[in-house]
Design a protein that fits this description.
The chain is α+β, with helices and mostly antiparallel strands. It has two domains: about 100 residues, Immunoglobulins (Immunoglobulin-like); about 50 residues. The protein contains two helices and eight strands. It is rod-shaped, with a radius of gyration of 40 Å. The structure holds 2-acetamido-2-deoxy-beta-D-glucopyranose (2 copies). One 2-acetamido-2-deoxy-beta-D-glucopyranose binds next to loops. This is Low affinity immunoglobulin gamma Fc region receptor III-A.
Length: about 160
Amino acid sequence: MWQMLSPTALLLLVSAGTRAEDHPKAKVTLDPQWNRVLKDDEVVLRCQGSYSSEDHFTQWFHNGTVIENQSSSYSIAAARVEDSGVYQCKTALSPLSDPVQLEVHTGPTIPPDSPLFPSWIQVTFCLVMGLLFAVDTGLYVSVQRDLRNSMRDQKNVKVTWSRGS
Ligand SMILES: *[C@@H]1O[C@H](CO)[C@@H](O)[C@H](O)[C@H]1NC(C)=O
Ligand SMILES: *[C@@H]1O[C@H](CO)[C@@H](O)[C@H](O)[C@H]1NC(C)=O
């Protein structure tokens, strides 16, 4: 196989190899720069690297798998949880970048049946019960007062009677 390659081809291979080594690794940057984003956030990944005059393509990897897009910036309009993971890129002249981690989190939404957060039905129930209790005790107090008053009235009546006789 090697014998079949002409010396010029070998020279080209060697020079291609050294050319790639001359260039520093490609670099992935995030915009915004946070590794942790919320679901539906916009994230733009940019690849910094050197391009050759014939080859302007950027190769992107997500979790080690090639992404279709070959532009130098890969934008995620509304992040999904599946967009989490490690991203790497490489260009014609810059070797594979170090991995950059992206974490997409779901927002701090409260699950509807969380016991910590009573539903409006529970709140209404408590309010109604409280109101009933207040009305009840109010009634009880007023009934007691009426009873006491009527008892005093009876006493007064008795007193009046005894005085009168
Ligand atoms: C992929 O690249 C095309 C242009 O080449 C662009 O219109 C599209 O938005 C890119 N998709 C992502 C997810 O970046
Ligand atoms: C990539 O990996 C991350 C974490 O390991 C995972 O959450 C995500 O779903 C993966 N995405 C794809 C497309 O493989």
